[in-house]
Structure formats: C-alpha cells, structure tokens
C-alpha cells in the first residue's frame, strides 16, 4: 500500500506543468509556424485556402449576427428615446391645454365685463353694483340664483337686477355677503310692462314651460292697443318694485284672449338666462326714486 501511494504522488508531480514553460512552448511553436508558413508559403497554399474558405463564411455569419444584434439594440434605444420624447411632448400639450383654457376664460370674462360695461352706460341714471352668480336652481336656466354680493355691499330686497341688454330679475332675499334673485322667467314672476312705442301697459309673466321655445307670457294688453310683433316692452312707471324704462324684451304672436277680452302675446327676453354668469344690481329702490320725484315736484 505504501509503495502504490508513493507511485501515485510521483505521477501527480510529473503531470504538474509550470505555466511559464507552457506559455514559452506555445510562443516558440507560433514562431515556428509563422516562419514555416512564410518560408514554405507555396506548399501551405492549399491549407491557407482551406482555412480561408472555412473561416471567411464564419466571419461573415458572425458579422451578420452582430449587425442584427446591434440593430436590435439600436431599435430598443430608439424606442426608449421615442417614449421619452412622447412623454415630454405630452407634458407640453397638457401645459398648452391649460394655457388655452385660461385664455378662453380670460376672453369670456373680458366679453362679460364688456357687456356689463355697456349695460352700465345704457342705464347710467342708476347706481349699480356688479356681482357674480355663485349658485342657481338645478336646471338649465337661471330662474332663481344666488349672487356674491349682500348687505355689506349695499344690496337690499326689491333691488332690480339687470344683465345682457335689460331686466334680469329682482332681489328677494339677502345676507351679509349674498343675495337671492328671482328672474323674470320664473313662474312666480310678474312684471308691470309698457310698450315703448304706444305706452300701452301689460303684464309680463314667467313661464318655464315656454322658455324652451324662447318665450315667456305677456297678458292684459288693452284690446284697442295698436301694438305689433317685435315691439319693445320696458318696465312701466306704475310698477311698485321695478324701476321704469328698463328693457324687458320683444313681443311676438299677438292674439286676443277670449276669456278676458284683452290681447295676449309671447315675449322674447333680452337676457340669455341659459348662459348668465354676472349681473348688475341697481342699488336704488323704486320707492326711493318715487320719494325723490315727489320732493323734486314739490320744490318746483
């Protein structure tokens, strides 16, 4: 047993080769092959041709595969870049949408303020306070709505409210920083009106059922009144709450009411109650103006 173990160890020692010797041997072998191939290149020509014919297709195949892999990596890189560009462009589009919405809102506000400014000039004889609508009835029309001005701003019950081209309604309730307005289209609204051209009086009544057709009611027109379609109706002097001379609308479809033996008609309001956003509140009450007229007439 001891003799076999010694032989095995001796055999392992013989198999162990120093790497330096192996490297040196390979180097010398390469030099010999280089010299031999150069010295006897004609004799080695068939071998060289064989190697070229074998290696070249492999090189071409490796090059093709490498190109395909490189192209795939390039495509993936392009996709990542496209994704980044798309995200950046989407952010820019979102920003432009916000800017566009702000511009639209500014244009809308500018148009609204321009209309209020023109309305203020048209009824310059009255003192007024501008207000925004902050709440409305849950329907498509402003038959009853809340504005953002109240007693702190000098608003009181029965003050007239105008918008668009004329009368919008009247204040029915008020708080410190809000007021409730009933518009002329509401079913409970009744306005004493007058035909501007003939001075004949009438009653303008709200009618939400007719409003989808663009009308409200006009009644109690004198049977002998010479009035025609498209005549202007303004608030009359005999109204106890509405200030005189404010445009209400234009009459249409005048006819005779057999039950009252008077004429009746439809009225097209001059205010767009479906898109109403801001109003002017006339901060003078009818009774105050009546008292002022009495004082003036008494002094005269």
The side-by-side strand order for the widest beta sheet comes to 1-2-5-4-3-12
Number of strands: 12
Which class do the helix and strand fractions yield? alpha+beta
The rounded Rg comes to: 49 Å
**Gross geometry:** rod-shaped
Question: Topology, pairings included?
Answer:
Layout: H1 2-15, H2 19-39, H3 45-122, E1 128-136, E2 144-147, E3 160-163, E4 166-174, E5 179-183, E6 190-195, E7 201-205, H4 208-211, E8 216-221, E9 232-235, E10 247-257, E11 262-269, E12 278-282, H5 286-299
Antiparallel strand pairs: 1-2, 1-12, 2-5, 3-4, 3-12, 4-5, 6-7, 6-9, 7-8, 8-11, 9-10, 10-11
Keywords:
single chain; 300 residues; alpha+beta; Thrombin, subunit H; six-stranded antiparallel β-barrel; six-stranded antiparallel barrel; 5 helices; 44% helix; disordered C terminus
Q: How would you describe the overall organization of this protein?
A:
With 300 residues, the chain is of the alpha+beta class. The chain has a domain at 128-299: Beta Barrel (Thrombin, subunit H). Helix content is 44%, strand content 25%. It has 5 helices and 12 strands. The protein has helices at residues 2-15, 19-39, 45-122, 208-211, 286-299; strands at residues 128-136, 144-147, 160-163, 166-174, 179-183, 190-195, 201-205, 216-221, 232-235, 247-257, 262-269, 278-282. A 6-stranded antiparallel beta barrel has the order 1-2-5-4-3-12. It has a 6-stranded antiparallel beta barrel with strand order 6-7-8-11-10-9. Residues 102-108 and 294-300 have low confidence and may be disordered.
